[in-house]
Specification:
Layout (H helix, E strand, L loop, with lengths): L1 H6 L10 E7 L9 H14 L4 H21 L6 E8 L5 E7 L18 H11 L3 E6 L6 E7 L4 H5 L7
Antiparallel strand pairs: 1-2, 2-3, 3-5, 4-5
Helix pairs in contact: 2-3, 3-4
């Protein structure tokens, strides 16, 4: 995750808003670890002064992306992480990182009970003027899903050195 976070154009100094924590990717089949993480995310976002709508979106995004990671990341990569970052333009960025190369994708047919999480995250991002990106780690052995709640930084996409899916 440090590869992606190190490139993020965010303010430096005492006013920087950034928090990250780790979670266990595969040990909890009931996903009991998700509830406290999503609540923590919502509380942090509210404490930073974002509106309730953004906190609710961040809470849902953390839950969906953690659930996807816990379900699909091989046990050989047991630790994932969540980060909340305030970008220098005021947008909130929710990042979920794991060490699997597998890219999330939507698997749906009319009878599927699951597979709508990524679509929901994309929709939440778009409703707040943002977007969902998937970035490979610089070493190619993992990925970071970045959910922008608010406009993305244009300089972020112009860097060109970041491998994209």
């Amino acid at each position: 995750m440090a590869d992606a976070l190190g490139l993020l154009d965010r303010p430096n100094g005492p006013d920087t808003r950034f928090v990250t924590w780790a979670f266990n990717c595969g040990a909890d089949p009931a996903f009991r670890e998700i509830r406290p993480c999503r609540k923590i995310a919502a509380e942090i976002v509210l404490s930073w002064g974002y509106p309730e709508e953004v906190a609710d979106a961040a809470e849902s995004i953390v839950a969906e992306l953690m659930a996807n990671t816990m379900q699909h990341v091989p046990l050989a990569h047991p630790v994932g992480s969540v980060a909340l970052v305030e970008a220098s333009n005021g947008s909130l960025v929710v990042m979920v990182h794991d060490r699997s190369r597998a890219r999330p994708y939507r698997r749906l047919d009319g009878n599927d009970e699951r597979g709508r999480g990524i679509e929901m995250v994309q929709s939440l991002c778009r409703s707040l003027g943002g977007r969902l990106d998937v970035l490979r780690d610089m070493d190619g052995r993992g990925k970071c899903l970045e959910a922008w709640l608010g406009p993305s930084l244009s300089s972020w996409f112009q860097r060109g050195s970041l491998p994209r899916y």
